[in-house]
Amino acid sequence: MSFEEALDAWITSPRYSVAHIDAFCVNPRCRSLNDPVPVTAETEYGTTTWEPDGCPDCGAPLEEEPRPDLEEDDG
Q: I need a labelling partner for 17 at 20 to 30 A (CA). Which of 4, 47, 52, 74 fits?
């Protein structure tokens, strides 16, 4: 395979992957604070999208790591 053919194959080949990860809501007012949320992360051509892309309870953005500095307000 020539360089041009290899380059063409690399450019046109779908660069797609799927991963199942846990993400975390870090909204201090959410009842699911720091609880793991199962997320499907799809990456294509360097762009990653999450489904769901927000907390199912409050809609706040999710993060890859929990925030131990945020604690539930039991009061």
A: 4
